[in-house]
Amino acid sequence: MPTLTTQKILSEGGSRVVVFGARRKGGHRRKIGAFGVSCGSNRSNRKKRETRRTTFETSSMEGKRGRTPSTMATVDVAVENEENDYSKDGLDLVNTDPMLEQHKGHLQYRWEKFREVKKAIENASGSLSEFADGYKEYGFSKKKDGTIVYKEWMPACNHAALVGDFNGWNGEATPMQRDAFGNWTCELPAGTIPHDSRVKVRLFKDGGHVDRIPAYIRYARVPPNEMGAKYDGIYWDPPKEKQHEWKFKKGPKKPSAPIIYEAHVGMSSNDSKVSTYREFADTVLPRIKGGGYNSVQLMAVMEHAYYGSFGYHVTNFFGVSSRSGTPEDFKYLVDKAHELGLRVIIDVIHSHASKNTEDGLAGFDVGQKAEDSYFDIGEKGYHYLWDSRLFKYDNWETRRLLLSNAKYWIEEYGVDGYRFDGVTSMLYHHHGLNMEFTGNYEEYLGMNTNVDAVVYLMLVNDMLHSNYPEVEVFAEDVSGMPTLCRHVRENGVGFDARLAMSIPDFWMKYFKTRKDEDWGMHEIISTLCNRRYSEKAIAYVESHDQSIVGDKTTAFWLMDAEMYGHMSATQPITPIIERGIALHKMLRLITIGLGGEGYLAFMGNEFGHPEWVDFPREGNNWSHDHCRRRWDLADAEHLRYKDMKNFDREMLNIEDGFKFLSNPHQHVSTADDNRKIIVFERGDLLFVFNFNPTQDYEGLEIGVPKPGKYVCVLDTDEGQFGGHNRVDKGTEHFTSPTKIESWVGPYPQEPRECSMKVLSCARTAQVYRRVHESEFAEEGDAAAAVAR
C-alpha cells in the first residue's frame, strides 16, 4: 500500500486517522473512524464569530520506519449560534468529516425524516417540549378543583375500567370512555382515590379481561411479605405535609469535564441488605463528594421487577424503584446531592423494556397490530439476548411516552442528565449482535441503520438540550457511530459524550492474557487515543460491567486471593499486593490522562474493591454478600485499601486544579515498548509512566514542550498512596535546550522544544507542571520579606 501523508488522507476523504497503526477488532467492538485524532496531536481551539477554527496536528502512521510525516490540518466547525440555527440540508458535518461524503444520501434522508417528524409534532402539539408534557396528561392528573383524571392509550381493547382499592376492584364501578385515537379516559371526584392506595386498569378484549399497571404510573410496589407477588400500581398524591420540600432542586452547572461516580443505591450498604435512597444520601453521597467527583450516575432508579437485572429490565418508566423507598425519598437524595454540589445523572433505558406483562408496560401488548402498540411485533419486537421487548420508535404514542419520560425525571425530580443505556441496540436493526465493527462507514450509515430509532434519539436530545441548557446526556454505544455526539442542529444524534467502552475491555484483555513484560506501550497509547477529536468520550478503567459475576474487579484481577489475607499494612507487603496496588493506580492515571474528555468509576472500585458483584438469586441462595459495598475496608486505617482511595482522591484533585480533561492540548512524545516508558502532555501537565516491572531509570531524559522549571505535583509512589517515596517532590527540574529523539512504537516523533531529566521508578508514574514566570517573582518577594 502506498504511503500517504496526513494531508493527503484528509483531502481525499480519509479523515479517519488510525492511531499509531492500531486496529481494534473483535465481536461487538469498534474502531473509531472519522474526526480521528492521533495521540501525538497538539489540539487547540480558536473561536471566531460564526465558526470555530480547530487546528490539530495528526500523523500518518502508514509507511515504514522513516520519520512519520506530520502536518497541521485546519477544520472549520460550526459554532452554536441560536437555539433554532438548524442545518438547511443536513450535510454540515461532511465539511468536518470527508468520510461522510459517500453517505450524503443517508444523512439527507435522516435529516429529512427528523425534520418531518418534528414538524408533525409541532403542528399537533405546538412544540417538542409540549409534546413531551404527555406525563401531565396521561396516567393520573388533577384539575384545579381536585377532580382526578385518568387517561390511557389502549387502542386494542373493547372496553376499559379503572379498578383499585378505592372501588373494591369492581370492574363496573369506574368505566372509561374512548376517543377516536384509542385513548380511554375517566374522571373521579376529588379525594375518591386515597393516597398510597393500589390501582390498575382493566382491559376488556375478545370476551376476556386483564388487569394492568398504568403506563404512566409514578409509583409501583410489591405487597409486603408476599412471596412471588406481582407489582401493583400505587396512586401517589401525598398531602402537603408529607411532600418533600425542595431546597436545591436545581443542580450545579455543567462542569468543564464530568467526573462521574457510577453507583447503585440498592447495593450501596456495607450490610447485606437493599439500601435506601435516604441512607445513600446521608452516608454515600458525602463519600462521593469527598472523593473529588462532581457527578453521581445512579443505576436502577426506574422501577424494575427483577433486581438482578441491574435496573435494565424496566417495568415502570415513570416510577422510582420501590425497593429503596418512595418518590419523596428519591427527591431527598437528589436534593442532598445538589446541596453537596453533585450533579445527578440517572440511567435511562429506552432501548428495550421488560417483557413482564402483569407488572410492566409490555402488559399493554395484547396481540394487537404494531401500529396500536408501544412495541414492534415478531422478531422486530423482541431482543433474544436480553429476553425483552423492543420499542416501535415510529409510533406516535411511543415517541410521546419516551420523550415524556425524559422530560419527567428532570421536571419532577430535578435530575441533571442521563446515561442512555443500550444505544448500540437502538442504532442498528441487528442490535450489534454478533457484529464486528471495523470502522467502515457502511456499518454505521446504511441499510442496517435503524433510522426510526436514530430519529427518536435526535428528537429526545433536541428537546432536552433546547429546554435544559445545563443537561448532560451520555450514550452507552460500543459501535462508535460517527456523528453520535454532534449537535442535532447539524444533523448529529445529539449526545454530549459517549462511554469509551473499548478501554475497560482492553485492560481486561491485558489482565487475562498478558504478562507484565509483554504489555505494549504502543498498543496502550493506540487504544486510549483511538477516538474522534470532535466527539467527547468518557474514559474509565472499569464500570459495573466488568465487576459482574463471571468476571471480577480490576483489583481482584491484579491481586486475586492474595487480598484475603495480605492487605494489612501492619505486615510486610507481598510482591503480588505491591504489584496490584501499583498498577491499580497507574491504570487510573493513564486512563484519565489520555482516554477521553471525562472520567468514570464504579462505586467502591476507586479503593480497590475485591471480588465481584452478584445479586441475590436462587443460585447463590439469595445472598446479598456480593451485592453490597465494603466501605469498612476503605475506612480501616490498617488496611491498604486506603492507599488506593487516597490516590484516587488526589488524582481527581489534580484534575480539578489543572482542568486537563477539558484542555484541547494532548501530545504523546514517547511510547517505548523496550523500556516500557510512556511520556505525554495533557493540558498544562506532563505525565511520565514506567510500566517496567523491575527497571528504574535515574536521569531519564524526556522531551518537554516549553523551557523552564518543572515540579512534580503527583507521584503514584508517594507514601500516602502506599508507595516508597523514592521521588523527591521538592526537587526542581530545569530544562535543557537539547532536543532528544523520541518514538511512539516504531514511529519517530518530532522532537519537543527542550528536554529534562527525571527519576522514573519501576511501576510508577509522575505528573509534572511547569512553574510560571510569575511564580518566580512571588518567590523573590517572599524571600526578600524574610530577609527584611
Question: Care to describe what's here?
Answer:
The chain is an alpha+beta fold. The protein has 16 helices and 35 strands. Strands 13-14-17-21-22-23-24-25 form an 8-stranded parallel barrel. It has a 6-stranded antiparallel sheet with strand order 26-27-28-35-30-31. Strands 6, 9, 10, 11 and 12 form a 5-stranded antiparallel sheet that branches. A hairpin with a 3-residue loop joins strand 1 (44-47) and strand 2. Helix 2 packs across helix 9, helix 5 packs parallel to helix 6 and helix 13 (575-594) runs parallel beside helix 15 (641-658). The chain is globular. 51% of the residues are buried.
- Secondary structural class: alpha+beta
Helical content stands at 10-25%
- Shape call: globular
Spans of at least 5 consecutive residues whose pLDDT stays below 50 are 1-83
Q: Using the CA coordinates, give the radius of gyration.
A: 28 Å
Strand order of the largest sheet: 13-14-17-21-22-23-24-25
Largest sheet: 8 strands, parallel, barrel
The tally of helices reads 16
Range of strand content: 15-25%
Taking the alpha carbons of the first and last residues, their distance comes to 71 Å
Instruction: List how many beta strands DSSP finds.
Output: 35
**How confident overall, as mean pLDDT?**
88
Quick summary:
This protein is of the alpha+beta class and 788 residues long.
Blueprint (SSEs and pairs):
Elements: H1 6-11, E1 44-47, E2 51-59, E3 70-78, H2 104-125, H3 128-131, H4 134-137, E4 139-142, E5 148-153, E6 159-164, E7 177-178, E8 183-188, E9 197-205, E10 208-212, E11 220-221, E12 232-235, E13 259-264, H5 277-290, E14 295-299, E15 302-304, E16 314-320, H6 327-339, E17 343-348, E18 353-354, E19 382-383, E20 388-389, H7 396-413, E21 417-420, H8 423-427, H9 451-467, E22 472-475, E23 497-499, H10 502-513, H11 521-529, E24 537-539, H12 554-559, H13 575-594, E25 598-602, H14 631-635, H15 641-658, E26 666-672, E27 677-682, E28 685-690, E29 697-704, E30 709-715, E31 733-734, E32 742-744, E33 747-749, E34 754-760, E35 764-770, H16 773-787
Helix pairs in contact: 2-9, 5-6, 7-9, 13-15
